[in-house]
Write a structure and sequence with these properties.
By secondary structure, the protein is α/β, with parallel strands linked by helices. It contains 12 helices and 12 strands. The chain has helices at 15-34, 77-84, 108-117, 136-143, 157-163, 169-186, 207-217, 234-240, 269-272, 298-301, 303-307, 310-320, and strands spanning 45-48, 93-95, 121-126, 147-151, 192-199, 221-226, 250-253, 256-259, 273-276, 281-283, 296-297, 339-340. The strands form 2 sheets. It has a 10-stranded mixed beta sheet. Helix 2 (77-84) runs parallel beside helix 3 (108-117). The longest helix has 20 residues, at 15-34. It is globular, with a radius of gyration of 20 Å. The termini are far apart.
Length: 345
């Protein structure tokens, strides 16, 4: 690819990355069989939080509700390089989101570039609106972003704003159009554009139109994701969740909604991945939204020291032995139905 077209995402992992992935697989297999934490190699996937800030007020997001207990901040490019460059080989996948809207951080395109140059595939989830500003859409295409997840629930302004409170549907449409135009201008097929449509009670009737709009806008494909609740009370679920059990991840038991998943699932992610929050603190899982189970700071100590350190090992040991934190109650690990294919809609 000519230099002016930017970086092309790596199609397949490097030999070193594949060897490391095999080590990760051996880690959770050994952990399952031996009932103790064994960590071989480095993470296969890393989630990094660009920022905790967001311009929307989504009702099932702690940031949107103003209930996130952590301070608002952003991952600087310098801090990201310090953390990322300490990991060898580079993780196969960088998921560039957590709490907050990634593009609020103006250095996010440069973070993508640095990770893509190291051989990682970079995926980013966005509420799309900020891509309608300036040259941001073209910058992320040039940066080598492999996949852009478009978090968009509904095909009309009314449905969209029911959940994406404070949003502007026209900005969403323009943001998508700008990314598609940038791909065409540069003659590339990346990033893959995945429209992630949450299945709420009020969005079901718009599913056929979502499929039509995806084709019209040039989105590569649409996935229909079951909605997550932060408040598991009966009333909250009955307000938001579809009546059809096939279109939700919860069952109502008494007055609480409970995840529909295997009772004997094993958490592979704590042996193969971790989450780095904007300030460098590391937590085992993205469901630790408030940072209650910090296992170290990768910016201060280097990620490898945190990955194999006593705090992370203690967390893994506690999980294996059944001492699991409350955040695990709503985690998607072992979930029977994360995505759905609505029939007849």
């Amino acid at each position: 690819m000519p230099a002016e077209e930017g970086i092309k995402p790596r199609a397949v992992p490097s030999p070193a990355q594949m060897i490391n992935a095999a080590r990760a697989a051996a880690s959770f297999t050994a952990g399952r069989l031996l009932k103790r934490p064994i960590v071989l190699g480095s993470p296969v996937m890393l989630m990094v939080e660009p920022t905790t800030a967001c311009q929307l007020r989504c009702p099932h997001c702690p940031t949107g509700r103003g209930e996130l207990s952590r301070p608002t901040g952003r991952m600087t490019l310098e801090r990201f390089k310090t953390i990322w460059d300490s990991i060898r080989p580079a993780p196969i996948l960088l998921q560039l989101w957590n709490q907050g809207e990634p593009f609020v951080n103006r250095e996010t395109p440069e973070i993508i570039t640095h990770a893509a140059r190291s051989g990682a595939q970079v995926k980013l989830s966005t509420n799309v609106e900020l891509l309608a500003r300036g040259d941001l859409a073209e910058r992320i295409v040039r940066a080598g972003l492999a996949e852009l997840i478009l978090s968009l629930d509904g095909t009309s302004a009314e449905a969209y704003n029911t959940y994406r409170v404070g949003g502007d549907f026209d900005h969403v449409r323009e943001g998508i159009e700008r990314v598609v135009a940038a791909r065409q201008k540069l003659g590339v097929r990346h990033p893959l554009l995945t429209w992630q449509f949450l299945l709420f009670k009020h969005t079901l009737e718009e599913i056929p139109e979502a499929r039509r709009l995806a084709r019209q806008w040039g989105v590569d494909h649409v996935v229909f994701k079951t909605a997550q609740l932060e408040d598991l009370s009966r009333e909250e679920g009955e307000t938001w969740l579809p009546d059809d059990p096939a279109l939700r991840r919860y069952d109502l038991k008494g007055d609480r909604w409970v995840l529909r998943r295997s009772d004997r699932y094993f958490c592979n992610r704590i042996f193969a991945s971790a989450v780095v929050q904007w300030d460098g603190t590391v937590v085992p899982c993205c469901f630790d939204k408030d940072g209650r189970y910090v296992v170290g700071n990768a910016a201060d100590d280097g990620f490898p020291a945190v990955w194999t350190g006593e705090a992370f090992q203690r967390f893994r040991r506690d999980w294996i032995e059944g001492r699991r934190p409350e955040m695990c109650d709503n985690c998607t690990e072992g979930l029977a139905r994360l995505y759905s294919s609505p029939k007849g809609l």
